[in-house]
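Deliverable D4.2, example record:
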Amino acid sequence: MEIIAGVDEAGRGPLAGPVVAAAVILSEDKIEGLRDSKKISVKKRELLFQEINDKAVSVGIGIVDEKEIDRINILAATHKAMQMALGRLNKKPTLVLIDGYKLPNQVIPNKGIIKGDTKVESIMASSIIAKVTRDAIMLEYDKIFPEYGFAKHKGYGTKQHMEALIEFKATLIHRKSFKPVSLNLPTISWLQKTKRVGIVGEQLAACKLMNEGHTIISMNENCAPHGEIDIISEKDDLLIFTEVKTFAKEQMATPELKIDTNKLRKLESAINFYIGKHNISRDIRLDGMSVMLGKNHSIKIFEGIELNFD
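Output generated by the structure prediction step:
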């Protein structure tokens, strides 16, 4: 019996974020409303995303980040994401149908179908899985980089995005091999001049937490009059508050974290204010992170800073 998997990607064209591919083997259980993901509303895509995951024989997802895209180029990164997606299927297909062109160096027989996301249901399903998965990633990044508008344009080169890129320069998640990005890379001196050293440090710290499985809840949470909490995240049912200290390479300062008693008292007051405001009754933790900016950023995490004040 022939087992057919459809494969499609999302995110080849953006200036920021990963490229995501999905592979889907559909069952005989009919899914109504399958279309090219770009022609479906956000709400409908999300409903179909859930239905595909519920009814498909198997779904595989491959994600290749911006660093790997810069290292091997976007076409090779797209192929890699597709191969990863196929490798994560729990059943080996006998034939793979790919939106666009055939996947090179693939053991499983595969065929490229131009505009396959408008013709083949398994490709339509994979386009929805890839699109919804990537959009969710970019929505998380929007919490970290609100000034860029990732929630709206998902990293594509819109007018809003280009203006933000010129004003705020490239972020950690921008693809440096793409020309509009390479023309707008920040320097340490520019960060110091524009007073963005601390902001960029907090963004780098949040990205590291996200890569380690944290869900970012809030950045720079204002808990007036007690102060600001740099990062609020959750992982393993734990609510984590993180204080970030950032150092530029030129500064004669140790990257070790130093939080004095006065600062600890302010952090405790801010955390208590946040917990009360949101009626939170769960386990919490205060962490610290130190970020050293430079050609190769270094980040240290200090877990479990004690808060013992009454």
